Structure formats: structure tokens, C-alpha cells
């Protein structure tokens, strides 16, 4: 499985790269802004995109919109992450095309694969995990 990480914190990107790569997920790009996220998606077409909801001057939903403009099926590959309470963004996540939400403190390869349904070939897995 390949992954693109979009988060404005370089420290978080580094930590998650290590966490995921130790679990066998190849991080093909890690960036902090919309334009680099689009370029990385276009270049790598990753299996999953982890997008921080709060990107400083931009929103993670800006990244979602840009990726959807590039690839209508991108939403099924996107998992939103944040340190904020999931209830703060539940409506926005539910209305967006993203696969779901995982709190940053609970992020793991197992949760990602479970949400994508790749661990057992199961269905959608949409929601908050």
C-alpha cells in the first residue's frame, strides 16, 4: 500500500512516515500544502491520502476539493486526520467524499487498512474510527 501525507507539521509528517513504513505502508510523498499534495497525487496515485483537517492558512477540505477535481474517485482514498474532537467536523466529513476520519492520537496502519477495507476485502468502512 502507498500513502501520501498532507499535514502542515513537519514533525508529524516525519513521525507518521516512520510509523507507517515500519508497518509496511510505503509513504510516497509527504507535504504541507495543497499544490504539493496535488502534484504528489498526480505523480504517485497513492492508495491512501492522509489529510490534516487544519493546514494553517488552508483547510484539509481544500485538499479534498483539489484532489476530487483531479480524480473523481480520489475521495475514496482520503482519510481525514486531526487532533480536534471528531464531533467538531462530523457533519463536514459526512458531507464530503472522504473515506472517513481517524484522530491523530489513534492513527495506525491497522486503522487505515480497516477503514479502506483492505484487511479483509470488506466494504466501505466509512466513518470515524
TrEMBL record:
<feature type="domain" description="Response regulatory">
    <location>
        <begin position="2"/>
        <end position="119"/>
    </location>
</feature>
<dbReference type="InterPro" id="IPR050595">
    <property type="entry name" value="Bact_response_regulator"/>
</dbReference>
<dbReference type="InterPro" id="IPR058245">
    <property type="entry name" value="NreC/VraR/RcsB-like_REC"/>
</dbReference>
<protein>
    <submittedName>
        <fullName>Response regulator</fullName>
    </submittedName>
</protein>
<dbReference type="InterPro" id="IPR011006">
    <property type="entry name" value="CheY-like_superfamily"/>
</dbReference>
<dbReference type="GO" id="GO:0000160">
    <property type="term" value="P:phosphorelay signal transduction system"/>
</dbReference>
<dbReference type="Pfam" id="PF00072">
    <property type="entry name" value="Response_reg"/>
</dbReference>
<dbReference type="InterPro" id="IPR001789">
    <property type="entry name" value="Sig_transdc_resp-reg_receiver"/>
</dbReference>
<feature type="modified residue" description="4-aspartylphosphate">
    <location>
        <position position="52"/>
    </location>
</feature>
<keyword id="KW-0597">Phosphoprotein</keyword>
<keyword id="KW-0902">Two-component regulatory system</keyword>
Amino acid at each position: 500500500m502507498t500513502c501520501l501525507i498532507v499535514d502542515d507539521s513537519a514533525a508529524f509528517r516525519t513521525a507518521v512516515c516512520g510509523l507507517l513504513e515500519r508497518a509496511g505502508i510505503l509513504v510516497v510523498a509527504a507535504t504541507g500544502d495543497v499544490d504539493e499534495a496535488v502534484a504528489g497525487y498526480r505523480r504517485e496515485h497513492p492508495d491512501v491520502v492522509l489529510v490534516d483537517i487544519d493546514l494553517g492558512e488552508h483547510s484539509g477540505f481544500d485538499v479534498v476539493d483539489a484532489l476530487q477535481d483531479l480524480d473523481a474517485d480520489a475521495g475514496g482514498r482520503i482519510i481525514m486526520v486531526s487532533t480536534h474532537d471528531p464531533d467538531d467536523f462530523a457533519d463536514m466529513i459526512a458531507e464530503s467524499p472522504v473515506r472517513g476520519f481517524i484522530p491523530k492520537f489513534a492513527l495506525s496502519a491497522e486503522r487505515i487498512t480497516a477503514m479502506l477495507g483492505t484487511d479483509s476485502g470488506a466494504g466501505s468502512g466509512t466513518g470515524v474510527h
